[in-house]
Predict the 3D structure of the following.
Amino acid sequence: MTKENKTIKVGGQAVIEGVMMRSPEFVAVAVRKPDDQIVVKKDPFVSLTKKVRILGLPLIRGGVVLIESLVLGIRALNFSSEVAMAEVEDEKKKDKPKSDSQNKLLLAGTLIMSMGLGFVLFFYVPLLLTEWTGVKDGVLFNLIDGGIRMTIFLLYLILISLWKEIQRIFAYHGAEHKSIFAFEAGQPLTVGDVKPFTTHHPRCGTSFLLVVMMVSILVFITLGRPDQITDRLIRFLFIPVIGGISYEVIQFSTKKWGRWIASTLTAPGLWLQRITTKEPDDKQLEVALVALKASLGMKLDPSVELWTKTV
């Protein structure tokens, strides 16, 4: 059972009062409603890396998975906020439900804004600050640029971790990791059996982002110092390449024969999860397990509500 489970790649994301889980066939989001009931939304999903052969090739698949994860993550967050506001909307009964086209437009707008803000904060701002130092040497320039980028990222995580609502999301993040660890170990998917596992997982998105930043330093060093606008544009065009390399590093870390090398690269990400994951309570573990079981097509408890509304 353990070997079979390890071949099934399951990933996830914490959302507002819930967890999103993604298996090779389904995406499921489980959220605890204000009345304490768990509601789950399950949709079939097969990655483009499986549908289109060329998109599944090494160094290409990473960029595809990154974009898919971003889209699915925003959808899951939208759903969790919809559930959180459902009772309020039912009481007011003033606003008409959004049409499917409106939801898609909202998703596209949110996706563009998220990518734009991330681009400015983690790529353009460090580049601008490094240029102000007046450093001319290409290697030193990119080392400073990378150092500033990682500092901004770390400060960002520390600041948001002080927010009480974010701390709850980080606890659901921990519940997600514990559930996946238990599944990969072939353990029964119950709260009691999941609880002993660690909240730090090497395939976590936090680890991935940190690997992206380390890889970007090495890649940008080969490009030298950006002196002209075309040089900057070329750096930004290499972002999908950086994402592809970083994805392969994370996958490499799961291979037994490559673990000793990859563990060195993923170790900082595991350390960073001390900030981005918190120890979950039993109710949060219960929600994560519902999401995991739903994504795997397993039978759910009759008390779990299946979401049938259009989001």
The longest strand covers residues 26-32. The mean pLDDT is 83. The two ends are 36 Å apart (CA to CA).
